Amino acid sequence: GGVSATLTRTELAMIRALEAFSRWCFFLHKSVSGVTLGAEDVWLLHSIRMRGGAQNLSELLMFLNRTDVSTIQYSLRKIEQAGFIERVTGNSRREAGYRLTAAGVDATDEYARIREELLIQLIGDVNGLEPALDSAAGAMERLTSLYDQSTQTVLNRKILNR
Q1: Residues 28, 41 contacting (CB under 8 angstroms)
Q2: DSSP assignment of 25-61, as one string?
Q3: Quick check: 17 and 100 in contact, CB under 8 A?
Q4: Among 102, 104, 103, 124, which residue's Cα sits nearest to residue 115?
Q5: pTM of the complete model beyond 0.70
Q6: 145-153: average pLDDT
Q7: What is the pLDDT of residues 56-73, one digit of tens each?
């Protein structure tokens, strides 16, 4: 019981919420753009939108707390081929970034409009949900840092036990 049971419940809730959120993102994006992208591709597209301006790979990895460079590069190519982003070259390959095209702005605008119309209204209809979500977001941010810290400890143990 106790903390262990609470953490297990939280982890299961995170998995279920991520699956539901993934479905939502996939189907909403497809409905507004007619283009099939995976949920992680949609998240990347919206991350570029939220960050504003051209974002390079390292900025996107940091923003999303991702380390899988090749997966993100593959997603960027898919989103670019779909016409939602364009590559912006800097002084070096390392400085190259991505920004939304007009189609990307249109798709993310319509996505945001429908999100506001459907989801934000539903959240507002549930008494006390907004402050609960704010509290949950803070807890998730702290939990993220604890998972990252624990992962580093696991990696350090492997090195130290050689």
Answers
A1: no
A2: HHHHHHHHHS----HHHHHHHHHHHHH-S-EEHHHHH
A3: no
A4: 124
A5: yes
A6: 93
A7: 888 899 999 999 999 999
